[in-house]
Design brief:
Layout: E1 2-5, H1 11-19, E2 23-26, H2 27-30, H3 36-45, E3 49-52, H4 56-63, E4 71-74, H5 81-95, E5 103-106, E6 111-114, E7 129-132, E8 135-138, H6 182-188
Parallel strand pairs: 1-2, 1-3, 3-4, 4-5
Antiparallel strand pairs: 5-6, 7-8
Helix pairs in contact: 1-5
Length: 189
């Protein structure tokens, strides 16, 4: 899978995920101090799932309903960085199929995942296409209005994770809980 780790993510977590053969870009290696909205947009444009320890991304995804390819929020505190890295890497291995398009929270003993609602305005849509005779041909029918803006992302031939579907559901209520206890309540519903 392809991930973009926010600059606040511990280097041992990044290394553990890379050890599991995932493609991980780390903002600490690139542009420290980048605004959260720009980091989220960079993950979208590069077809990566964002990994962060910053709850502010919940605000961007749930309240502002910004588009994303998936967000993994690490909320593992009070243990060594080595143990934290093992927990996060294991959670990603065990829940890999659920991560694209989802907002996932990793705790020491549990993993919670949801699919946030989109804004009322149209979302970015990803369409499969192939280059044939130097032209881009859509692999599935689509109605595009004249003058529609498109963004073309060239993918390696083996990048199948990019095409996993994203659906939507809300978990916004967890962001109203300042103590971070709202996650457990969601399992009761």
């Amino acid at each position: 899978m392809r991930f973009l780790a926010d600059e606040g993510v511990d280097g041992l977590i990044v290394a553990a995920i890379r050890d599991d053969r995932h493609d991980v870009r780390w903002m600490a290696d690139e542009l420290g101090g980048t605004k959260d909205s720009v980091v989220l947009e960079a993950a979208v444009l590069d077809a990566r799932i964002l990994i962060t320890e910053d709850k502010d991304f919940g605000e961007l995804v749930y309240r502002q309903r910004l588009h994303h390819r998936g967000v993994v929020l690490v909320r593992v505190d009070g243990i060594s960085n080595d143990e934290k890295a093992r927990i996060v890497a294991r959670a990603i291995r065990e829940h890999e199929a659920d991560l694209p398009g989802a907002f996932t929270v990793i705790h020491c003993t549990a993993v919670y995942s949801s699919r946030p609602l989109a804004k009322e305005r149209p979302m970015i849509v990803t369409l499969k296409a192939i280059v044939h005779d130097g032209k881009i041909e859509l692999a599935e029918p689509a109605t595009l209005p004249e003058g529609a803006k498109v963004l073309v992302t060239l993918l390696p031939e083996d990048d199948r994770d990019f095409w996993m579907e994203a659906s939507q559901k809300s978990l916004a209520e967890i962001w109203d809980n300042p103590e971070d206890d709202g996650y457990a309540k969601l399992l009761e519903k």
